[in-house]
Amino acid sequence: MAFNLYIWIACLLLLCLLVYQEIKRPNKHWLGARLFASLLAVAMLALLIVPINVNQQSKQQPTQLNIISAGYHADGLAQIPHQKYFLEEALASTLKRKANFIPDLAYHLAAHPEINNIAVYGYGLTGEQLKQIKNIPLEFHPAEKPSGVIACHWKDELKEGETLVVQGQYRHHRSKAVNLKLIGFGKTLDSTQIIGNSTTKFSFQHQIKQKGRSVLQLVALQGKDTLSQEPIPVQTLAKTSLKIVVLGSSPGFEYNFLKKWLYENQYALALRNRISKDKYSIEFLNRSNIDINRLSTQLLQKEDVLLLDQQEFESISASEKQAIKQAVAQGLGLIILAQEPNTTEPWLKSFNLAAIKKQEKINQLQLTSSPIKLAALPEQAPFSIGNRPDQQPLVLDGPSAIAVQKLYGKGKIVTTTLSNSYQWRLTGNQQDYALYWSSLLEAAARNTAPNYLLQTESNIPRDMSKLNFSLSTPSATIPAITNQQQSLSSQQNMLFSNRWQFQYWPLQSGWHQVAVDGQKQHFFVFGKENWQALSADQRIKQNIAYALSHPSPKVLPQTTIILKKTISKWWFFIAFVLATGFLWFESRLYNQN
Predict the structure, then answer these.
(1) Is residue 143 part of a domain?
(2) Which keywords does this chain's UniProt record carry (predicted)?
(3) Most CB atoms within 10 A, among 44, 54, 163, 444?
């Protein structure tokens, strides 16, 4: 743009010089014609350098783009009219000389604006390709639904002692049954059988005792044949030893069993049970003695969790209640065992405690953080906790919440109405007891380190593909992100100052690592051969949804497009030659006279 401006300024100065010379010349014969010829010559000279574009409307006949994707049988290509294309290099050997390869769909559509309909055959376009077609109508011809694991979910980061749960769906088109096994650490951890010609849900459980990173295998076997083998990557993190203070209004089974479990799991415990008004029974397990006869903010600031029942909370002095509130606001975790819905304590009243109707059948309790259902207890919880927007349910008894979490300053408050969890241990359900109390302690525990949350946009990150990451940090300070001693640049979210996006291209499958402000974050990258049935099923669903929202018309309309056309410079050159030729001829004629 600046270059064109300089050209026009130079030509204007040249025109002024020519006009001055023509006016100054003694012979005024043909003066008007000479001035016009000078103007024309200078203008044509400028137009020879500066391109001139004009917009033209053009009516294009309707054009359909036929795309062959994975899953479509090459035998059916003859039934597809007109030219066919494919986008995946893996199909090149199958579709050689039968279809043309498009390396970049977005570029192809930009180069062919007349395309106003797309027909896709097979499993369909990928999610990224659906974004590139920019609302063009889609006619989707799906291939046969894939056979194999079409849905699978598991928690890829576990705490020590936590149970791994792998759930999903398997579609099987054959009549012979399939054995589906979860294999790891050299043995079969869990298994089930998928009957023929069915789509069956499966659920596997295993408590991983090994710490660190591991890759289990989800294997489908039919006789001696291995139909599929999919990796299940899992990280098991070491359990953090929390400092816990427990205050009981009186000794009882609930506190005795909880004390033993906390001791067995290496928690630092200070237990105080009230015997009479001013007398206590005090025990210290896995820690040195401290003074817990009277609570203070200084004492509680050194602890991670304070657990007490409703009666004890109402019995302590006003100064101790104030110390607890200040400590929670500064980060202490508080667990309250609610004992009755009628209370005068403001904190407990805010939870909307309400009695539960007596049920004929006692429900299995459900943890909201895990798909595992806990064993039913001999007695149901006496009352539930009402729904509030500032509360997050932790444990459900049918539709009712019996344990919730809410924030208070920098700390967290957990309230539960279950007073007989010890019966899990009496009935031999040790794992259910551990899951219940681990969930409550984790929900309430003080945050001891900066929280960095790293997530990938893709649920199946693959090698040789771009991975988009989102990162949440404790502050708005720009995080230092490195991979193999190379820095990765990040972009700050425009709405949330502590959220960032960055990209990474993994060259191989397996475990990968990035360091965020020195803290190592591990993630797993799958190979292109992994989870093919799941990916194909997702593609089919995405393309069906897009085709329903962007239906293809029965009669394709003509497309009016705006073409930008550059005027040929030959016309300017001819006019320039005629103008300069006239000036030359006139000057020669003047000199002869």
Answers:
(1) no
(2) Membrane, Transmembrane, Transmembrane helix
(3) 444
